[in-house]
Automatic annotation (TrEMBL):
This is RNA helicase. Residues 1-12, 605-642, 695-709, 728-741, 755-773 have a biased composition (Basic and acidic residues). Its main location: nucleus. CDD domains: DEADc_DDX27, SF2_C_DEAD. It comes from Thrips palmi (Melon thrips). Residues 391-556 form the Helicase C-terminal domain. A motif (Q motif) lies at residues 175-203.
Length: 783
């Protein structure tokens, strides 16, 4: 009798070898094309908490920021994209087009936005291969094992800097917040933010910072550096209360968005205290900021330029009372672009202040740090400068020589098929960011943009909508690369490799934050291979190579070509609008002048010449150049002007070298720009540092020689001579005003101004008519 065949499951013996099925294949699956967008279907969010009051329920940290935003962001461009796209879809429907290329099932939402669904052929899987490290033996022996990523305060290379740095005291990696003896309001805030254990950088930095020591700290992106410096500051403010109302803490950040974010985190950490916080970043309402700063909040979070503006123009706000100075993204804050502004700020703060520097790519070159005048700083390097988060999966898509034209199609294929939501796409230039936004938007992706060509309200609105999952994809320049903490970002795509490894680390650090997993996919052409090699060399987990099937790239190439005309028309329309706005502003300004209205003049710490000089310095001129006489200077200026004109001509020629009408030309132009930046950075590195000129010794040597503002001098100096001087200045100013008024009301001036306004208005009319004509020609399009 034959026995039925059963697949029996046998018991596993202790020494049996068991095949490992948990090799991350689940994760692998989530990085392949899917029909549906992945949505959170957890029944209950582990982060959910009951709130204790209506006030708490209604509290939104964006509300705190709203008071600094004067005008609402306009959503014109979004309307344009959806109008163009909807019209195309309607047209195709009417024509009954059943092309394979257009067979995506469109899903119409209530809000009128079209979403897209993938056709079956687009679900073809990408091929994923392991990228082998190609290390020399010597490099292999140096490469770090993953375990070495665990907290370690670096001892290497310390000998040469012994005099400058001090070793961090030993600390317990498994320490808890309760062992840190933080005050009750802080513990309550930490608990409400779901912080259970301190992260390694917090365990290492908080006890040292509480002692009032200067710190120079480096830890990977997303490991909680903000709380690492904010918690000890707040604790010190609570513990050492001051009798006078004064701003005691200053946090400097390189970008406006990061400023807003640090402000929001600080607000949350201070929610059970009476500590006041101020925000002073560019692009937001000056008057609203002034009103807040006038009250001298305990902590001010600022970008350098706007802070100096307030310090110069808001009479009651001073930096002289700053006791703690923090530089977030310190290596960026200390680079040449901020050098003059930093010098100005440091000079005005208290001499006995505590200074803390934090970044994921921190410099430990003493000469780079001297400008900030640290006093025996403690060096806390939890991770080395070149490490990405441990739970980040890094992938590359190779663009072969001659295939540069496919970059946009590859990006579209990645975003539309696989990385459909919670994705940030990094590009190099503002112009390209806008173009990619249009491209993806016209393909049906819910996409926003973030770069310097937008107004600040627009920038913050994009960020808010992406954070609140109203947008699936955010296309950004490096303005979003540092410090931004957006919960739930699953993937980062580099449309092009950035200029340096540091830039790369910050960009990919927008995902895989606070212990979560994430993926970065970078498109890398032939010229970008060097940087890819560096990334692989520094990686502690395997790096993958993604190969997209050629037929998919073909399909997306056709899709991109299909919307090319629409992109061009939208860009042209925007250019017209910009021209009209520019002319209208000009006309308004001339009108104001005609009626004798003057715009408010604000003081700056540099005069025009000094500003020019700084710009020149940033152009990497030779610091060792000998001093020139007046005649030589004039001659040199003439030559420089000539050279500048020649350079501009060359630049124009070069710009025309790349045909921006083709994807290939556009990619080449972007790469050209990256190579220019790389050359500039390399030159900067080679340039000898001028320590003595950066270090403000005067302000830090005996006796307080800090410059007082003229406002202070006028108020405090009551000598006869000073009073006479003030009276004289007031009288001559009055006279000048009268002469100016007379001139302004002069008939000649009036007619000249009127004529120029008429000319501008005529031009506006002309541009508008041309725009209408073009629109009529293209089928009476109205956005
Ligand atoms: N102790 C903690 N426990 C849990 N989550 C934490 C803890 N500390 C910070 N976080 C969370 O980790 C995330 C990243 O923090 P943060 O933005 O400060 O990182 P970062 O190190 O400054 O990153 P970057 O280098 O990109 O600026 C935030 O969402 C924060 O709320």
């Amino acid at each position: 009798m034959s026995r039925p065949k059963f697949d029996c499951i046998k018991t596993i013996e202790d020494d049996d070898e068991v095949e490992d099925f948990s090799d991350g294949s689940d994760q692998e699956e989530s990085y392949q094309p899917t029909k549906k967008k992945q949505t959170h279907n957890e029944d209950f969010s582990p982060e959910f908490q009951f709130v204790s009051s209506v006030q708490e329920y209604n509290h939104d940290t964006w509300d705190d920021v709203a008071k600094f935003i004067k005008r609402k962001a306009n959503k014109k461009i979004e309307d344009k994209i959806s109008s163009v796209r909807n019209k195309r879809l309607m047209k195709e429907k009417k024509a009954g087009i059943n092309d394979d290329d257009l067979d995506n099932e469109e899903v119409n939402h209530d809000d009128g936005v079209n979403d897209y669904e993938l056709s079956d052929d687009e679900l073809k899987r990408d091929d994923i291969k392991l990228k082998e490290r190609n290390l020399k033996r010597s490099e292999k022996s140096q490469s770090k094992d993953p375990g070495s990523n665990v907290l370690k305060v670096e001892a290497e290379e310390l000998e040469s800097e012994d005099d400058f740095f001090e070793d961090a005291p030993p600390f317990d990696e498994s320490s808890t917040f309760s062992q840190m003896n933080l005050s009750r309001p802080l513990v309550k805030a930490i608990t409400s933010m779901n912080f259970i254990h301190p992260t390694p950088i917090q365990s290492a930095a908080i006890p040292v910072a509480l002692q009032g020591r200067d710190i120079c700290a480096c830890a990977a992106t997303g490991t909680g550096k903000t709380a690492a410096y904010m918690l000890p500051i707040i604790e010190r403010l609570l513990y050492r209360t001051s009798q006078q109302v004064a701003t005691r803490v200053l946090v400097l950040v390189p970008t406006r968005e990061l400023g807003v974010q640090v402000y929001q985190v600080t607000k949350q950490l201070c929610q059970f205290t009476t500590i006041e916080i101020g925000l002073s970043v560019g692009g937001l309402d000056l008057k609203a900021q002034e009103n807040v700063l006038r009250k001298n909040p305990d902590i001010v979070i600022a970008t350098p330029g706007r802070l100096i503006d307030h310090a110069k123009n808001a009479p009651s706000f001073t930096l002289a009372t700053i006791e703690v100075l923090i530089l977030d993204e310190a290596d960026r804050m200390l680079d040449e672009n901020f050098a003059e502004q930093m010098k100005e700020i440091v000079k005005q703060t208290s001499r006995t202040r505590q200074t803390m520097l934090f970044s994921a790519t921190m410099t430990d070159q003493v000469e780079d740090l001297v400008s900030i005048s640290l006093t025996k700083p403690v060096r806390i390097f939890v991770d080395t400068n070149s490490q990405v988060a441990l739970n980040l999966r890094q992938e590359f898509v190779r663009i072969r020589r001659g295939n540069e034209r496919d970059r946009e199609a590859i990006l579209a294929a990645l975003v539309c098929r696989t990385f459909r939501d919670h994705t940030i796409v990094f590009v190099t230039t503002k112009k390209l960011a806008h173009r990619i936004r249009l491209l993806l938007g016209l393909l049906g992706v819910k996409v926003g943009e973030l770069h310097g060509n937008l107004t600040q309200p627009q920038r913050l609105e994009s960020l808010r909508r992406f954070k609140e999952e109203d947008l699936d994809v955010l296309v950004a320049t490096d303005v979003a690369a540092r410090g931004l903490d957006i919960r739930g970002v699953k993937s980062v795509i580099n449309f092009m490799m950035p200029a340096t490894l540091e830039h790369y680390i910050h960009r990919v650090g927008r995902t895989a934050r606070a212990g979560r997993s994430g993926i970065s996919v970078s498109l890398a052409g032939e010229y970008e291979r060097l940087l890819v090699k560096d990334v692989i060399k520094n990686a502690t987990t395997p790096v993958k190579n993604r190969i997209i099937p050629p037929e998919i790239i073909d399909k997306y190439r056709r899709k991109c070509q299909q919307v090319e005309g629409e992109i061009k028309r939208i860009l042209q329309d925007e250019a017209d609008e910009r021209e009209i706005n520019k002319l209208e502003n000009k006309a308004n300004k001339a009108e104001k002048l005609l009626f004798g209205e003057k715009s408010e003049k604000r003081d700056w710490f540099q005069n025009k010449q000094e500003r020019e000089d700084e710009k020149k310095k940033l152009r990497l001129s030779d610091p060792k150049a000998p001093k020139l006489t007046k005649a030589e200077k004039k001659q040199k200026e003439k030559e420089e002007l000539k050279a500048k004109k020649k350079q501009e001509k060359l630049k124009k020629q070069k710009a025309n070298m790349f045909d921006e009408n083709t994807p290939e030309g556009r990619a080449q132009k972007e790469m050209h720009k990256i190579s220019l930046l790389q050359a500039r950075l390399a030159k900067k590195k080679r340039k000898p540092k001028k320590i003595a000129t950066v270090y403000d010794r005067k302000a830090h040597s005996g006796g307080d020689k800090r410059k007082m503002s003229s406002f202070d001098v006028d108020l405090t100096d009551t000598s006869k001579r000073n009073l006479k001087k003030i009276r004289h200045e007031a009288n001559s100013k009055k006279k000048m005003d009268e002469i100016l008024k007379k001139k302004m009301s002069g008939v000649n001036q009036n007619t000249r101004n009127k004529k120029s306004i008429d000319r501008i208005r005529q031009k506006i009319q002309q541009v508008k008519e041309e725009k209408d004509k073009r629109n009529k020609k293209q089928g009476k399009r109205k956005w």
